[in-house]
């Protein structure tokens, strides 16, 4: 292995942002369902890639929650772009990010696309909710008139510099105006230049099928837990012709469920001994972080030893 091969991807992704965007487009056109679990951190993104998924998703709800905030439009473009960039750089997979309503008026949506391109993201979705937006599976949300969303999309498309940066249009109209209205909006959004359509809060498989039959552009399904949509399998979504599926909050919910249970046991038992079997082992963490490759990069600077090696002790 050459020195270049050994250090590829140590400090940023080994794949350029433009190549990731091409990969995203290729995946959407491949006829194979693209599975994009949500990453709540760069480390989670590394694990998503290691397990073998096709892409990474960054959820606005997860980003808000990680900041200790509800998903009601409180996060800023700089917060989203910064965190999205950190996650995108951690993996060679393409990353799609939730850009809410574009953080303001159409000009703000244009700036959002420019900022996300600069951060190395492969695409984003913009939604047709009013400002401030709400989580798509909450009641009490509202959508802007179709004409306003078309202006939002037109501004975003005009600001795109890399033609392969994917602009996804999300409509929340299903829960407010009904399925037919959501389909009409999706068609209009596609005509305005959206590369991918995301319809929030479809109820069951029959609604996903109806949407696929009516809209002739790539479609994204949202399989979030505890929401308004029936949880469908990847096979079901593939069979009805969907191009991509996101699992936006799954990893955060798994992690936080385990953290809460573990903290309660630690508080009660006074030790973490009973939790060890459920923990990611130190050696697996080191493997994901490529400790050995950093050591090989500069053995004079990185002088630690990994578990199983015979000289000196590991770092704590």
From TrEMBL:
Pathway: Organic acid metabolism; propanoate degradation. It catalyses: (2S,3R)-3-hydroxybutane-1,2,3-tricarboxylate = pyruvate + succinate. The keyword Methyltransferase does not apply. Belongs to the isocitrate lyase/PEP mutase superfamily. Methylisocitrate lyase family. This is Methylisocitrate lyase. InterPro entries: ICL/PEPM, Isocitrate_lyase_ph_CS, PrpB, Pyrv/PenolPyrv_kinase-like_dom, Pyrv_kinase-like_dom_sf. GO terms for molecular function: metal ion binding; methylisocitrate lyase activity. The keyword S-adenosyl-L-methionine does not apply. Catalyzes the thermodynamically favored C-C bond cleavage of (2R,3S)-2-methylisocitrate to yield pyruvate and succinate. Keywords: Lyase, Magnesium, Metal-binding. Its cofactor is Mg(2+). Pfam families: PEP_mutase. Its EC number is 4.1.3.30. SUPFAM superfamilies: Phosphoenolpyruvate/pyruvate domain (SSF51621). GO terms for biological process: propionate catabolic process, 2-methylcitrate cycle. NCBIfam families: prpB.
């Amino acid at each position: 292995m050459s020195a270049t091969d050994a250090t590829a991807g140590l400090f940023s992704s080994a794949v350029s942002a433009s190549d990731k965007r091409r990969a995203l487009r290729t995946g959407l056109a491949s006829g194979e369902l693209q599975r994009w679990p949500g990453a709540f951190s760069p480390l989670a993104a590394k694990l998503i890639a290691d397990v073998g998924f096709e892409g990474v998703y960054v959820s606005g709800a997860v980003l808000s929650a990680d900041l200790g905030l509800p998903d009601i439009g409180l996060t800023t473009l700089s917060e989203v772009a910064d965190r999205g960039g950190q996650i995108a750089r951690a993996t060679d997979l393409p990353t799609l990010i939730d850009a809410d309503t574009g953080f303001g008026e159409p000009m703000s949506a244009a700036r959002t696309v420019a900022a996300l391109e600069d951060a190395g993201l492969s695409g984003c979705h913009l939604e047709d909710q009013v400002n401030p937006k709400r989580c798509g599976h909450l009641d009490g949300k509202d959508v802007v008139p179709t004409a306003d969303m078309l202006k939002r999309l037109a501004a975003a498309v005009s600001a795109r510099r890399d033609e392969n940066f994917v602009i996804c249009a999300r409509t929340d109209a299903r829960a407010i105006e009904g399925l037919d209205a959501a389909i009409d909006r999706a068609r209009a959004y596609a005509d305005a230049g959206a590369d991918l359509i995301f319809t929030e809060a479809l109820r069951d498989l029959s609604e996903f099928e109806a949407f696929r039959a009516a809209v002739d552009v790539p479609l994204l399904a949202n399989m979030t837990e505890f929401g308004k949509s029936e949880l469908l399998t990847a096979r079901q979504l593939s069979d009805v012709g969907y191009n991509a599926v996101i699992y936006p909050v799954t990893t955060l919910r798994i992690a936080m469920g385990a953290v809460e249970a573990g903290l309660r046991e630690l508080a009660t038992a006074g030790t973490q001994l009973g939790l060890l079997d459920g923990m990611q082992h130190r050696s697996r963490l080191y493997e994901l972080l490529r400790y050995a490759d950093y050591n090989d990069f500069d053995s004079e600077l990185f002088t630690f030893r990994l578990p199983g090696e015979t000289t000196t002790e590991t770092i704590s």
